[in-house]
User: Fold these one by one.
Assistant:
Number 1:
Amino acid sequence: MTVHLLCARGPASLLNFCAVTLALFVLWPAPASSASRKFSTVVIDAGHGGFDRGGIPRQRVAEKAMTLDVAQRLQKRLRQAGYRVVMTRDSDVFISLGERVRIASRYRDAILVSVHFNSAARVGANGVETYYYSNNSAQLAADIHRHVVSSTSTENRGIRRRGYYVLRRSSVPAVLVECGFLTNPTESRMALDSSYRQRLADRIADGVMGKPTPPNRPVVAGLVHLPSPIRSTGNYNDFVRAEAERRPTYRKGSSKKSSKKSKKSSSKSAKKKSSSSETKKKKKSAASDE
Ligand SMILES: [Zn+2]
């Protein structure tokens, strides 16, 4: 599963940096001191690994490598901020989804942040989307998503509720971030840039720390907006309905072009459509376990 910037800091800005650091201490409470953020442990879950490359067949950039790199950067950042950080994997190994959840469940005062990059057969598909399942994960999802989206030039695909295994089975608040599409030429190029991956990690960390969220960036047109399950300041309207399917959306037979064709369909193609819908269902259930 996929997402993305940084400011160069010149030596002259050391004083500013100190002032900002001081301000941060005042504005942003230390871990576990905030009433709404009673966790001291962050379990970071780098998606995929080992024989599971992630993404779709023939995808050039391996998702598992990108997720691990962002996860390790995030780990460093959060440790520096004083959190205990646990990694579900810290190398290129396969870890089952059940084991990922078991690791997170060992900690009571924890959250789980699963890092993924997205993929689609339609190369134009792009943008950042963030998933949660339980209501007590919605605030965390919004915080992370809004920070990540603010640092990218790619599309805001909204915050979505979906029962991915690690979200559904987690006993602690859990969020899954899709940091952008590795199948999109622009986003895969960005993901291959280490400064961009660092920016992704920094922004995810900002969300975890509950830093004030940046101004809203509208979500991409065409998504169905849902009422916000959380109370938040700012003009956000970024909770959207998760589409019925993720990857299969862009597969053969489901694009706009082919849906036009299907209007003219004969009974033969209707039959074909029905079998493609069964395939979709299978693929959907596979995607739910990401
Ligand atoms: Zn993934």
Number 2:
Amino acid sequence: MAGCLSRILVIGSTGYFGKFMVDASVRLGHPTFALVRENTVTSDPGKAKLVESFKSAGANIIYGDIYDKEKLLVILKQVDVVICTLSHRTPHLYEDEVMLIQAIKEAGNIKRYIPSEFGFDVERLDIMEPAKSLLGVKAMVRQRIREEGVPYTIVCGKLAANWYFLPKVGQVGASGPPIDTVRILGDGNTKVVLVKEEDTATYTVKAADDPRTLNKIMYLRPPGCVISHNEMIDLWEKKTGKKLKRIYVPEEEVIKNIQEGPLETRGSYMIAHAGFIKGQTMIDIDSSIGVEASELFPEVKYSPIDVLLDGLLPVND
Ligand SMILES: NC(=O)c1ccc[n+]([C@@H]2O[C@H](COP(=O)([O-])OP(=O)(O)OC[C@H]3O[C@@H](n4cnc5c(N)ncnc54)[C@H](OP(=O)(O)O)[C@@H]3O)[C@@H](O)[C@H]2O)c1
């Protein structure tokens, strides 16, 4: 079986999203290669442990750095698919991705490139600055990939469930699930897509070998992951048996928080404003360039929000 599956290289394997990609690739039976920076392993015990877990799971660890072009070409020659999870927070994501794209072209054997995305559809995104410019880099990368003729799949159209919103039952600035009151941005009726990171990785790896996703944008919109904030709170109230006082925060106040609020929450407000008020994870899918993951891969047993919320309930002995 493994013989027919593509060999997958994960660049950014020790990062937040990369580790889920390595796990999914191994789990789905792909010969998996994780690019790991040697310094990271020697300096960060947590990441060293993570790399050990990759090895135990059966992934091949390749020590290296994307800036070592000679070695990068040798690595690329050994694989069929590249999944990139370099961070959008680096000021040189565009340059790094272009370097990868050029190396992929030079190697000539890569059947699919999956660039670092996994969030909103950045080409059609209505989000406030500076998030717009920061994420706009990903749109520039898409354009470059198309210009260079590298076979690709873009994976996007959702928010990462566990990264921020789900553990707080959709709130911004809270430290956990609501207890007595809950703050809702806008009217709470906008639908938003929240997909568990593991499921994003599963769909990404499934897409890597599938001709239906070649040179397409694959949106992640499994029906059980589409929910409004009000609906999420309804579910939470039902699970806890406790009614919450709902405080609705008008859009103007959300914008004020983005422009003048504490620096540490501005980014979350920007993303929440785009997702929970402006509905930016629910844009229409243009079927000439876009496909939806759960329609393509109905066999994937993803985690609906309803089930994910159960994981937040206190454990009773
Ligand atoms: N984090 C989230 O919650 C989230 C949510 C939605 C979407 N996303 C998207 O997911 C993508 C990945 O973001 P992330 O948060 O997972 O990034 P991250 O945690 O910062 O991970 C970046 C990875 O890139 C590696 N890396 C950096 N420079 C490298 C180099 N020169 N050579 C080889 N490897 C290098 C890092 O290695 P070291 O471990 O050695 O530093 C790390 O493994 C981004 O497009 C982001 O926008 C993230």
